[in-house]
């Protein structure tokens, strides 16, 4: 008797590569990226599916899971799983998987790009030059070489940022309770406490997930401990930095610049950081390269297929 092929729904904009993998593995796949932004319609259809493949737009809430009696696996094509209620999923026996490696280089590169952008005010200089102003004396920047970079979180992405920063001849200090002395030596970084990092860094970049421990890690109090003239880069998660407090510190001149790819509320159509001088912002593009999106789509489709077809 023929068994029914498992059914997978892709509700966010995943690379075509994922659709192809599911088909090659004889999985019945539906690709509808509009569903990630329409939770009511998603809740109406989710009951049919064994697997759900997502990026960050789809919110996997308790309510959605309650409407999904057949669901066995949620696959996140990317790293952060903070858009998934993992407790609710495990209570229902739904496996949550991510792809921790596919976009790490791409995200590290974005953080480095943002650091250059804020050091040299490239976006503002670009807008001014396009406007025909030729403001050569307005945009005085700073060098990265010889400066101290404080890396908060030296895991997969942070570790690559450390490596790239060392190649740029920066001195790197890292705060990460999970970083071993051995790994720190290998990365040629100095392992420090958070207060020490805040005091010493000319640039700070964050590479930690958003958890109860890391939420507001750059609070008003911690921002006040930073070195005057510091520039802060966040390509990790919104909510790690108190945006209101940072905006105040930028206005007072204590913080010289900020480059943010992620925001406490996304999609971010407003933020205390918007329209301040020396603030560079991008719309959560950290993982947005053709290479990374292909990697994460392939990985998530392979992992989900393995699980649905063999339980492995
Ligand atoms: C991630 O956690 O991998 C990123 O936020 C990726 C994304 O934007 O999908």
UniProtKB/TrEMBL annotation:
Protein known as: D-3-phosphoglycerate dehydrogenase
Organism of this sequence: Jannaschia rubra
Single Gene Ontology MF annotation: O-phospho-L-serine:2-oxoglutarate aminotransferase activity
Coverage span on the entire protein: 394 to 705 of 926
Domain D-isomer specific 2-hydroxyacid dehydrogenase catalytic: 8-312
Keyword field contains Cell wall biogenesis/degradation: no
A biological-process GO annotation: L-serine biosynthetic process
Domain D-isomer specific 2-hydroxyacid dehydrogenase NAD-binding: 112-286
Keywords: Amino-acid biosynthesis, NAD, Oxidoreductase, Serine biosynthesis
